[in-house]
Design goal:
By secondary structure, the chain is of the alpha+beta class. It is 35% helix and 11% strand. The chain has 3 domains: 77 residues, no CATH class; 200 residues, no CATH class; 133 residues, no CATH class. The chain is built from 16 helices and 9 strands. The strands form 3 sheets. Strands 2, 3, 6, 7 and 8 form a 5-stranded mixed sheet that branches. This is CxC6 like cysteine cluster associated with KDZ domain-containing protein.
């Protein structure tokens, strides 16, 4: 999955060095490839495959400023389509994720799917819940919000930062910036942990004449005077091993007490700053209980119930397309939101679905005292979810198992999902689980409802 390794392997073993050595020294081209060539080739190849599969020709601009700009519109269109019913296996069913049964001469179907999220953390605009793409992964803000680059990084400060700094001239704000650069040092972090545990070091391995004294003094007396450029350790010190402190690309949030992403011990709110780029909250997957991934979406700010509902409604744009079972570890909050929504369309969209909490989380993560959760989301409420011998009919942990695989991929997730699904479907076919696809037109057309395909599951 490394473009760097792909380029290196090609250059070491496949690039035509014999021909290259025979060319004149003024020859303007090289037979070696770099990381950018690998990514451009990957994106272009899969865009061609995608358009060919849909009977379309790929059209790209001839006047774009770069190859990345040339590919951007087509990639954006494909990403947007994949967030809905765009995956090839979106309409997949098989004997492991779907139960077919007859009752009173009517054929019924129960499709089981699971939702879960994984925090892959792709770079995104630092403005909360902004969906605009970044110009490059190194940018902190999108084009719409790039004017905020000059703003002080203190979370509730609206002043512009001073030249050479990321904070304004307010002493408390400048002090936090100085602290940020010191805090990234591994030695400093370990010392801080010892201080919190009130543990004394048995001896000081550094002599009194070392450079440790002024560094400790700057740490303990944060006066806002220290310049970020002066925090670099002198040559030959531990700084050569540890680097320049916290990664400037990393999203780090600290307060005056040095607490990262946590509540101060005092319980009081203090000045907080956010350094580095914000990252997306998580990738949300909808997975059939057999393991085939039906779709995914990027959650920018949080995995809130309303965001989960929007994801489901976009992935299943008609009630006809809804699976009968929508497992989710936070369905109790989703159900509460649906019941309190004044919009009748939104509050009733999932009336034909069972919304259980997956078995593992219901047993281990949800309190028995939570009456509403037990009343609405206990998977035992639906007899269709159990077999005659008392076992669970469907795998309700399929999404978490898929997440373990997703964690290895990032930029080309949609394409890797498509290829993974192809592999799983081949295995299902080999095992005799009868994988097939429901015609999309049947799922996307609500005008005619066949008996048994979307009947409401009743609680037992």
């Amino acid at each position: 999955t490394s473009a760097t390794n792909c380029a290196r392997t090609y250059n070491d073993g496949l690039s035509n060095q014999i021909v290259g050595s025979s060319l004149p020294t003024t020859w303007p081209y090289t037979f070696e490839i770099d990381v950018e060539d690998v990514w451009n080739s990957f994106f272009l190849y899969n865009l061609i495959l995608d358009h060919n599969a849909r009977g379309r020709a790929l059209e790209l601009s001839h006047t774009a400023s770069s190859q990345s700009e040339r590919l951007r519109p087509a990639l954006h269109e494909r990403n947007a389509r994949m967030a809905g019913p765009g995956q090839d296996a979106w309409n997949h069913v098989c004997d492991l994720c779907c139960w077919f049964y007859a009752q009173d001469d009517v054929e019924y179907t129960v499709r089981s799917t699971v939702t879960d999220g994984i925090e892959t953390g792709c770079p995104c605009c630092a403005v909360h819940d902004c969906l605009e793409p970044l110009p490059t992964v190194k940018h902190r803000y999108c084009d719409l919000h790039r004017h905020l680059n000059r703003q002080c990084v203190i979370t509730d400060c609206k002043h512009d930062s001073d030249d050479g700094f990321r904070t304004c001239s307010i002493p408390d704000h400048r002090a936090l910036e100085s602290y940020h650069y010191l805090q990234g040092k591994a030695m400093f972090q370990l010392k801080r942990r010892l201080e919190r545990l009130h543990v004394s070091q048995t001896h000081d391995s550094l002599s009194a004449g070392s450079n440790a004294a002024p560094r400790a003094r700057m740490t303990n007396e944060i006066d806002g005077v220290l310049l970020p450029d002066l925090v670099v350790a002198e040559a030959g010190t531990d700084g050569d091993l540890e680097g320049l402190g916290a990664d400037e690309d990393e999203d780090v949030e600290i307060d005056a007490n040095g607490i990262c992403d946590g509540k101060p011990e005092t319980g009081n709110k203090s000045v907080r700053a956010r350094f580095g780029r914000r990252r997306t909250h998580n990738e949300e997957l909808r997975v059939a209980s057999c393991g085939v991934i039906l779709g995914r979406a990027t959650f920018y700010g949080s995995e809130a119930p309303n965001g989960v509902r929007e994801f489901w409604m976009k992935l299943f744009p008609t009630k006809r397309s809804l699976p009968q079972v929508l497992w989710h570890d936070n369905n109790c909050r989703v159900v509460a939101m649906l019941r309190n929504d004044p919009d009748s369309h939104l509050s009733t969209y999932f009336d034909s679905c069972a919304l259980p909490v997956d078995v593992f989380h219901f047993k281990c993560k949800h309190k028995e005292s939570d009456i509403e959760c037990g009343r609405n989301c206990n998977p035992y409420l639906w007899p269709e979810l159990r077999t005659e011998d008392g076992k669970w009919r469907f795998n309700s942990s399929a999404a978490e198992q898929a997440n373990a695989w997703v964690e290895r991929y990032d930029f080309f997730l949609d394409e890797m999902i498509r290829r993974r699904n192809q592999g799983i479907i081949k295995i299902l076919k080999r095992r005799g689980n009868a994988p097939h696809s429901i015609p999309r037109e049947e799922l996307l057309d609500d005008s005619v409802l066949k008996p048994g395909t979307s009947e409401r599951l009743e609680m037992g």
